[in-house]
Amino acid sequence: MKKTTRRVPIKDFGSATDVLSPLEPGDIELIHGEDKPPKFREMKPETKEKYDFSLDGISALNLPIPKTKEEEEAIVNGFLRGIEKLFQKENNWTFLMPTTLSNEYCMQCNTCNEACPIYTESGRMDIYKPNYRPEVLRRIIKRYFSKSGKLLRKWAGADLDLNWRVVYRLAELVYRCSLCRRCASVCPIGVDNALISRELRKVFSQEMGIAPENVHKSGTVQHMKTGSTTGMTSASFKDNIEFIEDMIEEKIGRRITIPVDKKDADILLLHNAGEYMAWPENPAAFAILFEAAGLSWTLSSEQMGYEGVNYGVWYDDVQFARIAFAQIQAAKNLGVKKIVIGECGHATKGFITIADRVLVGDAAIPREACLPLLEQIVLSGKIKFDPMKNNFPVTLHDPCNMVRLMGIISPQRNILKHIMPEGQFREMPDAGTNNYCCGGGSGFAIMNSQNFPDWRNNVACRMKARQVLEAFKDVLDPSIPKYYCAPCSNCKGAARDSMMEHFGFRKKYNIIYGGLVELMVNAMVDIPKPFISWEEEF
Amino acid sequence: MSVVQVKGKDVELDEDGFLVNPEDWNDDMVAYFASQEDVTELTENHWKVINYLRDYFKKFGAAPMVRKVCKDTGFSMQEIYELFPSGPAKGACKLAGLPKPTGCV
């Protein structure tokens, strides 16, 4: 096994060095077709003076460097107050038990290290180990909340003194974990170090008001204000649906009416709002399939009824609960029997699993993932598919939240068996619950402050790019069109920004990306023209 | 957040350089954004896209779908990128004074 590089003893985590553990582009293992070390943009000196880059030279949070002793103290005190609350049942009503257990039982055996794509793809930087940040937390708890730590300090293993640098570096460090939970899946005793990252994000947001701008201010705050994270209003939603109906007519030669606000339908379908803005062929494909299968379904145009995602999942229980309640209200107003979440991993995790903690009593409307329903449609025989219409190489990405977290593994594969000719579908290495994050998870795909996008593209997204090249290694020739199927909005965003634009897979290898429903519609016998195209259509 | 001086007037921009207050938008701001977004010369075609975005925003309170911009202005995606090198969202919306596009897009 390769060794950890750039060791940083935890007791030095708050040291006054400019950058504690600078990311070294030369340490990063290149992927096929890359001929020089990845580039990270140089930040202007005035930016570096103003904002904290002291963890690894990257800033995801734009934290302004404190100017006075008072500001420094406020940072430390706020953090200690938050940590205290994290372990109180009145203040942590979502994850108290698993957080406590993961915090207490990790033995630092390092089994999780090799499972983490960010650790391995960074050149195995010590600070990126999945068990590094929880150990920082543990030393702080020992030092400030245990009797022996308060009295004996380093003789009791409490050797890390808090200062603003520790707090800010830890805040940045929890945004170097994509919460993919691959570490948790290999832990011999079930410790969930990704949960610790998520819970620390919660401390930073709920107690200190620290969160990435695109996740909080233009994320959950905007969602509550306009009804969606994209700022799509009810009026623009309706206009978008009209546009999608036109698009469907052009594509399939027949107009269908997309049901909106239909009372008492069986299903309320909730898409990630980003689909409407950036990938309207995805909601279009859902509409074609649901119509052809004769389902009783509807979309909602009510504010909070047309956005499925809930960014609170990544960083804040209060924002999470506010959004989940408002979303369920929209479903209740329509009297639907259940909610089905479209191709969005975070929406699936948030609404189906975490929301169980807050949606109780008459708010407990059944909520389901779309993949099993899509499988039922295929198996019902209501729609005729011709697999030869998908006669091109396809590989499948497993969104972490649907697959590793929720165990939805076979539906998408059964579907592919029915809509693809034999030999064209190929699994990528480590497929299934062992698959790797797209690199955009936990907010990374939408976080764009300072030089963070360089870190996302070069480090977080590298493993997925490597896997996709491996899956297509026998057909890389650009004369062969290929399809990277990622049934998740977030994963598609990461694919576009990293795989297509940054690594240039479309130009170099003729790989395009899209969801699963597009492939299904592409194989429908009743539709004369291809639904998927490798040409720029617009 | 930062403040820039454009033709002697202080204007607030967000961290990605988008207008914070929509009422600050005017021709001078378009020229300033053009210089920031590698738009060398503002042509009739640029204004066609900018005016379309502003009209849509006025009507619906949100930015239009990328495909709708192409369809209604008659420009292909590639032509939009030629006009606004950082693209329809980060480029064209900025010049049009719309809020920064957000969410999983």
Oligomer: heterodimer
Mean pLDDT of chain A: 96
Count of runs of 4 or more consecutive helical residues of chain B: 5
Number of strands of chain A: 8
CATH evolutionary superfamily of chain B: DsrC protein, C-terminal domain
> Could you give a short account of the major beta sheet of chain A?
4 strands, parallel
Rg measurement of chain B, Å: 13 Å
Helix content of chain B: 40-55%
Tally of DSSP helical segments of chain A:
24
Number of domains of chain A: 2
What would the CATH topology of chain B be? Arc Repressor Mutant, subunit A
Query: Which segments of chain A are poorly predicted (pLDDT under 50) over 5 or more consecutive residues?
Result: none
Q: Find the count of extended strands of chain B (DSSP E, 2+ residues).
A: 2
- State the distance separating the first and last CA atoms of chain A: 48 Å
Give structural notes.
The complex is a heterodimer of chains A (538) and B (105). Chain A has 24 helices and eight strands. By secondary structure, chain A is mostly helical. Chain A folds into two domains: 10-207, no CATH class; 219-522, no CATH class. In chain A, strands 2-1-3-4 form a four-stranded parallel sheet. A four-stranded parallel sheet of chain A has the order 6-5-7-8. In chain A, helix 10 (216-226) packs parallel to helix 15 (317-334), helix 11 packs across helix 13 and helix 13 crosses helix 24 (516-522). Chain A is globular. In chain A, 53% of the residues are buried. The mean pLDDT of chain A is 96. Chain B contains five helices and two strands, in the order ββααααα. Chain B is mainly alpha-helical. Chain B has a two-stranded antiparallel sheet with strand order 1-2. The mean pLDDT of chain B is 91. In chain B, 37% of the residues are buried. Chain B has one domain: DsrC protein, C-terminal domain (Arc Repressor Mutant, subunit A). Helices cover 49% and strands 10% of the residues of chain B. Classes of the chains: A mainly alpha (538), B mainly alpha (105).
